[in-house]
Amino acid sequence: QVQLVESGGGLVQPGGSLRLSCLASGFTFENYWMRWYRQVPGKEREMVAGISRTSRSTPYLADVKGRFTISRDNANSTLFLQLNSLKSEDTVVHYCGRVEPNAGRVDYWGQGSQVTVST
């Protein structure tokens, strides 16, 4: 069955960096767009970044552009999100998601990775 398993979250100081990973299994990873989302308690999940099947297209949310980088390794079925220059307001749970073809919505989610930015 489809599984998305995230890793790499944790506690980091302001200005620091983290890299999130999302290991996919149960489907042909290279055939799907993938996305990272974030969610603050009490608010809706919002898209942080997306990546096309060949990595040619990588749209970003405006307030992370230039600080976060989405990438993928199709050979190892893994999605990444590099988070740099982290701020306290980046303290959220991040989720990876597989995009349903022709529908544009996420049909499978990872379990979530907590990122905490604090001194």
Record the SSE blueprint.
Elements: E1 3-7, E2 10-12, E3 18-25, E4 34-39, E5 46-51, E6 68-73, E7 78-83, E8 92-99, E9 106-109, E10 113-117
Overview in brief:
The protein is an all-beta fold.
Task: Write a structural description.
By secondary structure, this protein is mainly beta. 0% of the residues lie in helices and 48% in strands. Strands 2, 4, 5, 8, 9 and 10 form a six-stranded mixed β-sheet that branches. It has a four-stranded antiparallel β-sheet with strand order 1-3-7-6, with no helix packed on it. The protein is globular, with a radius of gyration of 13 Å.
Taken in chain order, the helices and strands follow as EEEEEEEEEE
Summarize the amount of helix as a percent range.
under 10%
The oligomeric state is single chain
> What value does the average pLDDT take?
96
Structural class: mainly beta
Shape: globular
Instruction: Give the total of beta strands.
Output: 10
Largest sheet: 6 strands, mixed
Q: How many individual helices? A: 0
Kindly provide the radius of gyration, computed on alpha-carbon positions and rounded to a whole number of angstroms: 13 Å
Question: In terms of per-residue confidence, which ranges show pLDDT below 50 for 5 or more consecutive residues?
Answer: none
What percentage of amino acids are in beta strands? Answer: over 45%
Terminal CA distance reads 40 Å
Task: Describe this protein with a few key phrases.
single chain, 119 residues, mainly beta, six-stranded mixed beta sheet, four-stranded antiparallel beta sheet
